[in-house]
Amino acid sequence: METETKDIAILEETLPKTPMSFILSETPASPTIGDIVEGVVLAKDKNTIYVDLGLFGTGIIYGREYLNAKDIVKKTKISDTITAKIVERENENGYVELSLREAKNASVWHSAEEAMRAKTPLELAVKDANKGGLMLLWQGILGFLPASQLKSEHYPRVPDGDKDRIAEELRKLIGEKITVSIITADPEEGKLIFSEKTPSSPEREKIVAKYKVGDIVNGVVTGAVEFGVFIKIEDGLEGLVHISELDWSLVENPRERYKTGEEMQAQIIEIKDDKISLSVKRLKESPWKKAESAYKKGDIVKGVVIKFNKYGALVSIEEGVAGLVHVSLFPSEDALRGALELGKTYEFQITLFEPKDERMTLALPEKEIAS
User: Fold this and answer.
1) DSSP 70
2) Which of 127, 138, 216, 322 is the most buried (most CB within 10 A)?
3) What phi and psi values does residue 84 have, to the nearest 5 degrees?
């Protein structure tokens, strides 16, 4: 039976196709809503355009779609070939409803995705600014350049990190042209994100190739910001020491500890996409090594509450060794802050101790937690 079925299939393949089967096999698939199609303008009046879509019938652009694309419509003449997006496969009058504006929008987003992949440099004027970054206009789409993606010379170095003052500094860039590249292009969310940080170049790659992870370098501070410190290693090469890599102990505000022009030594801990990450604290012995033999899970220790965050309270046991008292141990965040006061010393029990991962959690030992 199986052999017979195979023979029939082979026979069917060798038989000549009927005219209808040939037409069906050669006919392109019918377009659906959202597809981009091309057609020739058949007719045009004051509020409607008719488009010849060949095998797929006649397209129509009218009503809101006509009004939304008035700038494109003005330049469109009979017999012009236009690109449009299908918004309705067949309306009550049998026409395929089209949108010129949405087709143009789709084309722009396609260009944005191509520019992102090619890391194409774009020179754009700053249109507006807020405390988070800058707004730039590209091909009719308003995109965002986060402050974290600014070059160090443009990053607002406000001494106290005041967000209103940061916005004030960023507004000084309005009207100025800066060179950026697209790092995110998401048409579904309408999200276009830029970066001013220089994409890889052969010259930069050559400079970076001289260094490797573990190297100790000398540099000069070019700027201190809320998330770390920028260090110039040599002309054309700058590295970032993230706030978490500045010291083993807690650093609240890098601006208070590091000044522009100050000489610094640091260790390279990562080279990725021609970007160099540095560490200052790793030039010193980790206090967690000593702590490994000094503490164990279950120990009762004394510690100072040094910071509150959304996870709980950070407690310093000794210089560079801190543990977290998690908020989940309390009925509420207010209860946590009621039981522990910033700057005060308390007794805690170690509930987790993983010195190799620099992790410690703490709890108040056998004490009533205020509700």
Assistant:
1) H
2) 322
3) -140, 165
Q: Are 365 and 351 in contact (CB under 8 A)?
A: no
Long-range CB pairs of 256-262 (<8 Å, 24+ gap) are 257/224, 258/221, 258/224, 258/229, 259/221, 259/224, 260/157, 260/221, 260/222, 260/223, 260/224, 261/220, 261/221, 262/220, 262/221
Number of domains the chain contains = 4
Question: How many C-beta atoms lie closer than 10 Å to residue 50's C-beta?
Answer: 19
C-alpha 98: how far from its chain's center?
33
Contacts of residue 43, defined as CB under 8 A and 6 or more positions apart, other chains included, come to 49, 50, 78
- Give the closest residue to 139 by CA, choosing from 173, 167, 114: 114
pTM of the model: 0.48
Under a CB-based contact definition with an 8 Å cutoff, are residues 313 and 307 in contact? yes
Last residue of a domain, one of 253, 283, 313: 283
Are 187 and 208 found together in one domain?
no
Per-residue HEC secondary structure of 232-281 comes to EEECCEEEEEEHHHCCCCCCCCHHHHCCCCCEEEEEEEEEECCEEEEECH
pLDDT averaged over consecutive 10-residue blocks of the chain (371 residues)?
A: 45 44 48 82 87 88 81 82 85 87 74 83 92 89 88 72 80 91 83 80 78 94 81 86 90 84 93 86 91 93 92 92 94 92 94 93 71 41
* 29 within some domain: no
Distance CA(21)–CA(155), nearest Å, equals 66
Residue 245 has φ and ψ, to the nearest 5°, of -110, 10
Give dist(CA 182, CA 190) in Å, integer. Answer: 13
**Which residue range is the domain that position 276 belongs to?**
202-283
- Do 98 and 54 reside in the same domain of the chain? yes
- Would you say 183 and 117 are in contact if contact means Cβ atoms under 8 Å apart? no
Say whether both 53 and 92 belong to one domain.
yes
Amino acid at 190: G
Longest dimension (CA), the chain: 92
